[in-house]
Amino acid sequence: MHTQLSEEVFARFMALPQGEAYQAEYIWIGGTGQDLRCKTRTLNKKTNNPDDLPVWNFDGSSTGQAPGDDSEVLLKPQAIFPDPFRGGDNILVMCDCYKPDMTPIKGNTRLRCAEAMKKVESLVPWFGIEQEYTLFEADGVTPFGWPKGGFPGAQGPYYCSVGTENAFGRHIAEAHYRACLFAKINISGINGEVLPGQWEYQVGPSVGIESGDQMWVSRYILQRVCEAFGVIVSLDPKPIPGDWNGSGCHTNFSTEPMRKPGGFTIIIDALEKLRARHAEHIAAYGEGNERRLTGKHETASMDSFSYGVANRGASCRIPRAAEKDGCGYFEDRRPSSNMDPYVVTGMLIETCCL
Ligand code: ADP
Ligand code: MN
Ligand code: MN
Ligand code: MN
Ligand code: MN
């Protein structure tokens, strides 16, 4: 544990007026493809257009994104959100990364996704992503709310729970929810999850590339909220081995033709296309997912592809309502909690629509 800094003293400084200067927090995906990095600069005018913001740079040799002898990586602003931490007119800026010649760096997954989304603009693709996460004490090993070195009672009472003995860390889920609303992220809900100390939030339906941008910024906000409470958040797909649920990132997907009368056949067509590329999708759906997709704990085994109406043991689920209405959406249950939403949404488009 480190020294607790005084929130009261901090609040005194944060209450000082900032004049006509605005703070822009540039955010990007780091070298592991899962970590987020950020740094701030002062701006002198307000804007809602990312193209009006300056391209910036960072030392890629410190994030595993460039060699030391040619270390500069460029940050291109792509999406702007109100900053729930600094408040006022300050902003969060989701960026992607380029080499000095403006070609994308190896880890830039946004560009390919944006290109795929551009091609299918007329289909108006919607994504609703269910982000599951698990909280840990600051020691990094004790799941939040669990007895030190021991185990809580078996799973059952924790999912969508209420009560001190069942719901661990609600402050974080609630604070994150409100912060996302402030940031104009299309957050659609939260719920307690099956594993004690595990929670879920949903972002969507969001259109095209906005889904990936909003998901990454929602994860940034989650980390900042947890930092404020001195709690650690894990997006590991199987944070606790054994008879405990893992964490997924179910991706609900539809196009306008799927949402219109007769859309059911287009949903089935998309699912058959996914069957044909199952192995490629699994390979891209998150690191360590093989520890989660065992066929137990509401997952389908990763070795084969399946789909079914209302079936939460299948790779993809068709909601009961979609069958009844003859249109709607489907849920790809395979992506893990640490998946890259640019990769997953882009691949769904490439496989199902291109
Ligand atoms: P589950 O029943 O699997 O727990 P959730 O309610 O947690 O599902 O999440 C469903 C997500 O799908 C929400 O974010 C919701 O906004 C989104 N969604 C709803 N309709 C559509 C649609 N037509 N296309 C894509 N996503 C959708
Ligand atoms: Mn859900
Ligand atoms: Mn869930
Ligand atoms: Mn779950
Ligand atoms: Mn789901």
From TrEMBL:
Enzyme Commission number: 6.3.1.2
A Pfam family this chain is assigned to: Gln-synt_C
SMART domains reported in the protein's UniProt record: Gln-synt_C (SM01230)
CC per GO annotation: cytoplasm
EC top class named in words: ligase
Start and end residues of each GS catalytic domain: 109-354
Ranges for domain GS beta-grasp: 22-102
PROSITE patterns listed in its UniProt record: GLNA_1 (PS00180), GLNA_ATP (PS00181), GS_BETA_GRASP (PS51986), GS_CATALYTIC (PS51987)
Coiled-coil spans in chain: none
Presence of the UniProt keyword Ligase in the record: yes
GO molecular function: ATP binding; glutamine synthetase activity
Keywords, comma-separated and alphabetical: ATP-binding, Ligase, Nucleotide-binding
GO BP field: glutamine biosynthetic process
InterPro entries found in the cross-reference section: Gln_synt_N (IPR008147), Gln_synt_N_sf (IPR036651), Gln_synth/guanido_kin_cat_dom (IPR014746), Gln_synth_cat_dom (IPR008146), Gln_synth_gly_rich_site (IPR027303), Gln_synth_N_conserv_site (IPR027302), Glutamine_Synthetase (IPR050292)
Source superkingdom: Eukaryota
Reaction(s) the record says it catalyses: L-glutamate + NH4(+) + ATP = L-glutamine + ADP + phosphate + H(+)
Subunit-level organization: Homooctamer.
Protein family according to the UniProt entry: Belongs to the glutamine synthetase family.
Record-given protein name: Glutamine synthetase
Species assigned in the record: Nannochloropsis salina CCMP1776
